[in-house]
Amino acid sequence: MTIDRLMGNVTKTALIGLGSNLGFNDLDKAEVIEAAIEDISRFAYLKKSSCLYVSPAWPEGNDSPDYLNCVIAIETGLSPKDILEKLRHIEEKYGRVRDKQNRWAARTLDLDIIAIDDMVLNEKDLKIPHPRMEVRDFVILPLSEVAPNWVHPISGASLVEMIASLIFSGKHILAKPVVNA
């Protein structure tokens, strides 16, 4: 029995999406993501990290710089709301400004809870799994590296099925792994 179980804490695997299309201070966007992963590993055990993927800014036609994205798997005993709160603090540390007027504005850092085990949560400020994650190649491609057997708890779709659905729907998969980022 683990110490967490003895103390009443049940650990869960959380899948976190990280993205950046702006640097912060003297850090470029890859360094912002690397620093954020280090910060996350201070409150959770880092199990696995995908490589970085580059993708155009969303929505199509947006003239913002390309994004770098990755997904990490962490193990934690924290509640979903506590994880979200810690992620928001890390975003703020790297200059993230939430612009409700321009939802698709360029950002120094974007941290999203993609999923936590097979949890389904539908609250005003937190939805798990992340809404629309299955149609975002910059989420499902890196997710397939860190949790290849993950199945969407609502739709029942595997990552292979989600990727195939994007391809067969006529949408182009634009996210590409970054070599020597």
What can be said about the biggest beta sheet? Answer: 6 strands, antiparallel
Show unreliable segments: 1-7
Secondary-structure element order, N to C = HEHEEEHEEEHHE
Mean pLDDT, as a whole number? 87
Principal-axes shape call: globular
End-to-end CA span = 40 Å
Structural class designation: alpha+beta
Count of individual helical segments? 5
Strand content: 15-25%
- Integer-rounded radius of gyration: 16 Å
Please count the beta strands (DSSP E, at least 2 residues each).
8
How helical, in percent, are the residues? 25-40%
What does the secondary structure layout of this molecule look like, with pairings?
Layout lengths: L2 H4 L5 E9 L8 H12 L4 E5 L3 E3 L11 E10 L3 H14 L16 E7 L4 E2 L4 E2 L8 H10 L12 H10 L7 E2 L4
Antiparallel strand pairs: 1-4, 1-5, 2-4, 3-4, 3-8, 6-7
Helix pairs in contact: 4-5
What can you see in these coordinates?
Strand 6 (121-122) and strand 7 form a beta hairpin. Strands 1, 2, 3, 4, 5 and 8 form a 6-stranded antiparallel β-sheet that branches. This protein has a two-stranded antiparallel ribbon with strand order 6-7. It is 28% helix and 22% strand. With 181 residues, it is of the alpha+beta class. It starts with a helix and ends with a strand. The chain is built from 5 helices and 8 strands; from the N terminus they run H-E-H-E-E-E-H-E-E-E-H-H-E. It has helices at 3-6, 29-40, 80-93, 137-146, 159-168, and strands spanning 12-20, 45-49, 53-55, 67-76, 110-116, 121-122, 127-128, 176-177. Helix 4 runs antiparallel to helix 5 (159-168). The longest helix has 14 residues, at 80-93.
